[in-house]
# Entry
Amino acid sequence: MNSPAINVSRSEVIPGWMTLHELEWLALQASRSYMIVELGCWKGRSTAALVDHTPGTVYTIDSFEGGISTEDIVRIEVESRGKDTIRNEFRSSFVSELMENRLKLVEMDTVSGCEYLLHTVGPCFDLVFIDGEHSYEQVRADIQASRRLLKPGGLLSGHDFWMDGVFRAVTETFEDYQREVDNIWSVRV
# Structure
């Protein structure tokens, strides 16, 4: 079987921290997935890789407020420019996808957003990608909340495996996790 054409050039111009290889890995997973949930989108770097490659729908959950363990650069930008500005930058990158309902923004904290999707959409997702707040407690909560959204055989994955909170939450929760490209982890559930 031929691999789908992967082009992450739109992702590369959106501010964020994912590497080219991480974006390409995420795009490939999206090309194999019809229903996707992203926890944490910031300005949409990873969102573009997902929505540009899936034949289906991406739900992205973000409050645009940052969090208590959010990196200083994010916290400073939210405090100085405001969450409305950040949200509007995100939305302006995805006008057509939002209008076509190929991208659906759930503006809530990640755990509440997962609960909302569980009750409104159900456990039908092929792929979950976690890249929200990186504290141990929050990553554990995100894993527990989002794994319930996956259908059997779905892929649960996330970013920033090198960060202590992410590393501890993943390795304490799963014995069979995989280390993917650069700082991405994944597990089939």
Observations:
- The mean pLDDT is 92.
